[in-house]
Structure formats: structure tokens, C-alpha cells
Amino acid sequence: MASTPPAAPGTSTPGTSTPGESTSGASIDPRALRTALGAYGTGVAIVTALDAGGQPVGMTINSLAAVSLDPPLVLWSVQLDTPSASAFRQARHFALSILAADQETIARQFARTDSDKFSGIATTPGSADVPLIDGAVVHFECEAWACYPGGDHEIIVGKVTRLASRPGPTLGFHRGRFTTLADA
Length: 184
Ligand SMILES: Cc1cc2nc3c(=O)[nH]c(=O)nc-3n(C[C@H](O)[C@H](O)[C@H](O)COP(=O)(O)O)c2cc1C
Description:
The chain is built from three helices and twelve strands, in the order αβββββαβαββββββ. With 184 residues, it is mainly β. A hairpin with a 4-residue loop joins β4 and β5 (73-79). The radius of gyration is 19 Å and the shape is globular.
């Protein structure tokens, strides 16, 4: 198949680019953006906290990213109009459980708006009683450090106060599908 080499920086003609189709400027289509970001494979985590009434809240995320080693900071972003958003924006403590490769059903369960996401899910209470997902490959227990506006999301930065990590294949998410990230 014939292919066109990428244009040098600053040389692309408006309306054309490689690779694939282009979209630019103010007209970035949210679906095109989501599809493009899907090329950036990630792990999958469940973020958990307690709401103001002490009830557990949790949701599947893949926006987890490293921020700082000293102090130890991580971030994730929450969609502002999702039902759990206010609980997470107010929580002083939260936990991140990075899922193992065999925990796809948990990822799917926590990605549905549901009053009982924790049904059938084994958890262990961590700091401030925030539930940790059993069987995850990593647990980060965090204190809320800062929140920043991020368009239709809020960026939540946490200071890691405790961590547990074990080897083993992790659940991945790439181009809209769950996958396995195996140890080298
Ligand atoms: C792989 C994957 C990653 C996700 N990442 C995020 C994320 O980083 N932030 C977010 O707000 N929602 C994310 N979601 C969507 C939420 O999990 C979903 O909207 C969930 O229902 C939110 O919980 P709630 O309905 O209780 O508010 C993701 C979903 C999947 C399947």
C-alpha cells in the first residue's frame, strides 16, 4: 500500500496531514479526539472514596498519571457531570486500585452508573476506611492534594500516603478495548 511520509513540522497544508485523517483548530470533534486518544494505551484503575454520608463510591478510570516523586503525587480526572463527581471532588481521601488482567468484569461494573457498584466485589478497608479492590496489582492510598479545572473534567491530584504493589499482568485499555499488559 502506498504511504505518504509525515510532513516536516510546520509544513503541513491546512486540511491535509498524516497519519490518517486530520481535524484541526476550533473544529476538533470530540469523537475524533476520543478515538485519537485511544491510541495511547493505558492501564485501568478503580478510584474509590467515601461520600459525605460515609457510603463508598467508585468508578473505573484510565486517566491516572504520575505527577511527582517527591512529594509522591498522582493525578486523575473526573468528568464533571457524572453522578459520582461531587463525592470525589469533596473527598479528603481516595484510593486507586490498578486492576489485574483478570479483573475486566470489575472494570465494566464500575463503569456503569449504578447504586450498588460494590455488589459482589471483594474489598479491604484502607486508610480512612476507603475500600481497596482485592486482587488489584497496585493500591495507592491518597490524600487529596489539589484540584484543578480541566474543561468538562476536574483534575484531582493526590499525595500517595501508602502503596502496595505486586507483579503480574495488568488490565489495559487501548483503542476502546480492554487488553492485557503482560510483564516483560
Ligand atoms: C476504561 C475506562 C476508563 C474511564 N476513565 C474515566 C476517567 O478517567 N474519568 C471519568 O470521569 N470517567 C472515566 N470512565 C467512565 C466512568 O467509569 C463511568 O462514567 C462511570 O459510570 C462513572 O461513575 P458514576 O456513574 O458513578 O459517576 C472510564 C470508563 C472506562 C470503561
